[in-house]
Amino acid sequence: MSNTSNRSRKILIKCEKLTKTYDDRSVIVKALQGIDLIIKENKFIAIIGSSGSGKTTLLNLIGGLDKPTSGKMWFDGEEISSLNKKEGVLFRRKVGIIFQDFNLHSVLTVQQNIELPMIYAEKLDKHARMIRVEDLIEKVGLEKRKRHIPTQLSSGEKQRVGIARALANNPKLILADQPTGNLDSKTGDKIIKLMKDLQKEFSITIIVVTHNLDVARKADRVFAIEDGKIIPVTLEGKEKKRMKKKKRKKAKAS
Ligand SMILES: Nc1ncnc2c1ncn2[C@@H]1O[C@H](COP(=O)(O)OP(=O)(O)OP(=O)(O)O)[C@@H](O)[C@H]1O
Ligand SMILES: [Mg+2]
Fold this sequence. Notes:
Elements: E1 11-23, E2 28-40, E3 44-48, H1 55-62, E4 70-75, E5 78-79, H2 85-92, E6 95-98, H3 110-121, H4 126-139, H5 155-167, E7 173-177, H6 185-201, E8 205-209, H7 213-217, E9 221-226, E10 229-233, H8 238-253
Parallel strand pairs: 3-8, 3-9, 6-7, 7-8
Antiparallel strand pairs: 1-2, 1-4, 4-5, 9-10
Helix pairs in contact: 3-4, 3-5, 4-5, 5-6
The structure holds adenosine-5'-triphosphate and magnesium ion.
């Protein structure tokens, strides 16, 4: 069996009995109520669920932006549910984030926006950073826009910058909360295709939260959050594709 096969793939994220309760004294919201989840490395994962079901809450926990109320989480074998402040800052640098509203620095150029996380990480000198910036700009197809600032870009181009920036520090994981939510469907399709291509090329895991089932159908695995609980789902159309693939593989082998 090849070492990239499903069974031998390493576990990247593990959540055990994860809960999150928001309690600001006036209102208590049990946003997550016992999430058990395993995500292996080198996967494109989609999380779906109705508004308010807890998708962003879960992403925030996985990305170290918030702490669970109870339960445990591991990233790449390291327990992350009980990191102190300093460890939390270091952990967050290992995760790339793509935002629905792009979240670019308005006065910085495409090149500078992509370089910024590398400056914070303090791992590469200026020369090495510029080489990586140019490489990422090429990967997302923005060679002709690198000196533009965000107001001089289309929405799709802004999200391409967001993708390159998320890849800047070579993360094993990228989290994307509704990355196509502010794009028309054609541009959204292109962005998802780019994310999928780069996920494979860099052998990373990408978790996409989406309300768009066409986006979810493109994922290797889909999870749904309902009432603060998570369940694996198979979407109609996706199952047919999976069976066709299986048939093709069988025919090839025989
Ligand atoms: N900081 C907070 N304080 C109190 N309640 C919160 C807070 N953040 C989220 N919630 C509540 O937790 C629940 C889950 O919210 P979350 O943002 O995770 O939903 P979501 O699935 O991402 O929804 P959407 O699809 O609309 O983005 C909601 O009922 C929300 O009102
Ligand atoms: Mg949300």
